[in-house]
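Lab notebook, bench 4. We co-purified these components, and the gel suggests they stay together. Before we commit to crystallization screens, I want a quick structural picture of the whole thing.
Request: model the full complex, all chains together.
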Amino acid sequence: MKRNVCVVGVGHADGPYATGLQPNALIAQGFTRALADAGLRKDQVDGLASAGHSGMHEVAVAEYLGIRPAWLDSTSCGGSSFEFHAQHAYRAIEAGDVDVVAICYGSNLLSASGRTLGTGGGGGQRGMQPPGPMKYEFPTGLTLVGAYAMAANRHMHEYGTTPDQLASIAVQMREHASRNTNAMYRTPLTVDDVLESRLVADPLHKLDCCVISDGGVCVILAAEHIAAGLRWSTKPVYVRGGSGGTTHHSVQGMSDMTTTAAVIAGKRAFETAGIVPSDVDVFCSYDSFTYTVLVTLEDLGFAPKGEGGPFVAEGNLRLGGALPTNPDGGGLSCTHPGMRGLFLLAEATRQLRNDAGESQVQGAETAVCNGSGGWLSTQGTVVLGTQSR
Amino acid sequence: MAEHPGHSGTRDAEPMSGNWNENPPWVVPVPTDEDREFFEGASRGELRIQRCDECGLHQHYPRYLCSHCGSTEVKWVTASGVGTVYSFTVIRQNGVPPFRERLPFVVAAVDLEETGARLVASMPGADPAQVAIGMQVRATFRSVGEGIGLVDFA
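Here is the predicted assembly.
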């Protein structure tokens, strides 16, 4: 018989500034705090998932944490890796292969590398050939921000999306961050503030881009019978479904810059979970850039294709709006230590536990997390809810 | 950029802004057996891409199989160099030399007239204000090492 799967623990590492802490220390911080949040001992964890930037990353993490898991997942597809981990763990727990899976992430990106990731420092640095097909694009001087900018530009061309509409996403995320004492930037913004910030790669301004921070987080999933004996047993959060997909690696491989794999991933995840877009109370969207949110909203069916611009400009992402999005302030204002996908699952859980204080979406019962990796290359969608399927 | 003359088949035919001809080792691709034809072609002023004998579509970058239909009957052909801008951006921040010294510059995704092939390429001579999606562009070539060329568009 298939087992229900719950999120039983969430723990954040220090951030957005964590000078002096190495990535594995940040992972350990999140892990120990998530165990405490759940009321679990570490020897009860029999599965581990993590994404980093080297081979055998998850093995090194297991040793560092002093655990010997029998189930591993190191799917590493950028920011969406953790939505893939959650989906895989959900299926494995459901099937009875594993009981308790800790999904871990930690990065000291800001302390170690400064604010270079999106503008030339993230790959193909001096003395290092870029991986795979990026070889053909790195010599052009294209940056990570530039790749998203190209996609946004195409969307503007096809659908008349405007820089003001994109900017309104950053404004709404900042509004949320202003309520969150853990957010990196909290001073409210206007659309003009975004448009007057310098262009990094046209049409994306500095304030269309996510922050770069340190940080880490751990989310622990467990079978329902285990969750029943743990700390949050009276406010269970269920994994209801998930899916993922990829369309390209290099930018030249992004044949349609205005549609992502979230079209497929979202449809499957929603079907598995037995929900439709109008059921969603909280949306935790990857927001590496304002455009990431816009295209994802369309691809998941929250707005018709091409109408994401008007949808966001109406203020629908606000708390109290039609689709409260990233109540913590998102990557655009709260925290983004390189890969943000796991923070989405953490925030959705906080909301569904009705534990989000000033940032709470009232009566939240269904949340969708959508991670995006690379340059819209990979998409992973996970549906969480206060009820089992 | 219709007013710009085409330079397919010639090398370094346009004056470049910035230091486009100074390419430190870390930006010079290292050809493999799979893609040497592309880089060598560019060094002699030819845009070499693959065409599938089965489905007739083209592809860039070179691969063992056709990325469209899966056939392994892919053959090298020389593209005309004419293409259409699918999208572009103006890079205004890049911390890595020599790109840092070239700012701002245009990078475009160009659909070649040979259906199926798209290149991401620099447009070194382009005035950012004059570049538009849908405009026709033509390949130019820039040598960055012995038998290694890059394809740009103008």
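Chain B has one domain: 30-153. Worth comparing against the SEC data before the next meeting. The first strand of chain B starts at residue 48 and ends at 52.
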